[in-house]
Amino acid sequence: MTSRPATLGQLRESGWESLPVKEEVRRNAARRITEGKPLVDEVFGYEETVLPQLENALLAGHDIVFLGERGQGKTRMIRSLIELLDEWLPVVSGSEINDDPYAPVSKHARDLIHDKGDETPIEWIHRSSRYGEKLATPDTSIADLIGEVDPIKVAEGRYLSDELTLHYGLVPRTNRGIFAINELPDLSERIQVGLLNVLEERDVQVRGYKIRLPLDVMMVASANPEDYTNRGRIITPLKDRFGAQIRTHYPLDVRTELEVVRQEAQTLDGLGVQIHMPDFMAEVVATLSHLARSSPHINQRSGVSVRLSIANYETLIANAARRALRLGEKDAVPRVSDLEALVSSTAGKVEIETVEEGRDEIIVDRLVKAALLTVFKDRCPMDQFREVITAFDDQTIVHAGDDISSADYVEALTRNPSLREPVMALAGSEGPGVVASATEFVLEGLHLSKRLNKEATGGRATYRGR
């Protein structure tokens, strides 16, 4: 930073050019597109749907509103736009609103440049400082967004008419940057009116003052679909001023959902056990969310967030780790018997539509079983279980449960050779934990496919022929 121009005169001599923020974003976005790099990192499933619309909006220089249900990555995409700003930007030293040294708008910057000319000191701010964000709430005021008189400055002896008595709000303080409003419909309609000038005339006016601040701001907002919430709406004149409305969506397939989950889920380190999540169990977690998004028992207007999959994934691992610690095993591998723990992590993340008391757990249990059966049918062709079903018809019995060790499952396979081949094909590993998980998965899949009977008591289950 010491090699960068420190005064206005040095800045002019360096040949630095001032660009409007949207032109700056457009230039950097165009470079990323040319290089084949994504505009947004760590967001999956939008390559053919959302991201092309975002590229168009940025190249067109539009203000953007992302419209979608909860947990669709709207805020993450908005925050990632910071990377499309230049890394460093010169501002007039001491400016509260990032004044452009070539075109100052605040009285502080204008007076400083008038007094010192080319000796005006320059500061360089990082792009992370050029982003402002506000979660819209009903109590948000114009003072929060635009500004208000600072009574402390008045008490210091300044006149009310003095522009220096202003305390700038979030929007002016994000001058020459990106300002985001999350959940825009929650902003009261009279406050939304205060943003009209920002989006169209590109300025703000503070009440009681005959001043206008010609701001250079890129505005981005997120909102839920209007048919989802009764809390509010985006007023028509404000919606009209956004150049682009981009509709987001949930992952369209299980594979994409799992990519998000594996990126976001916390790892349980420091417990003294080795965590391993079998692919077929991870697919059950993701499939559960997909089935919930089409279930008539779930309120689809509120959505089924990807956070459900993340929470269920973490809960499944936690329950497996708890069992491993209790049984003294080194490996923690989630099993079918761990799926009962998903009730607690699922019930709080979906809105279940039922008039009967106490049916929430029943509906969640049905979704879990449907997800497991879906994955079982996809991964395990039924013709490979002919000998298994025959063996169970000949009085074979297998016990399963949360308190049964992995070694006991390995021993059960030794006693039932017909079961070993399909289990090992699914497990793909000789590890006792994975073998135990695959064994429970196969047995439960055969039960849900109506090939085996199951007697369940507490945390124990017994599988036998029909």
UniProtKB/TrEMBL annotation:
GO molecular-function terms, A-Z: ATP binding; magnesium chelatase activity; protein kinase activity
Taxonomic source organism: uncultured Acidimicrobiales bacterium
Organism placement in taxonomy: Bacteria, Bacillati, Actinomycetota, Acidimicrobiia, Acidimicrobiales
Root EC class: ligase
GO biological process: regulation of DNA-templated transcription
Coiled coil: none
Keywords carried by this UniProt record: Ligase
Sigma-54 factor interaction domain segment(s): 167-225
InterPro entries found in the cross-reference section: P-loop_NTPase, Sigma_54_int
Protein's UniProt name: Magnesium chelatase, subunit ChlI
PANTHER family: PROTEIN KINASE PRKA, PROTEIN PRKA
EC number of the protein: 6.6.1.1
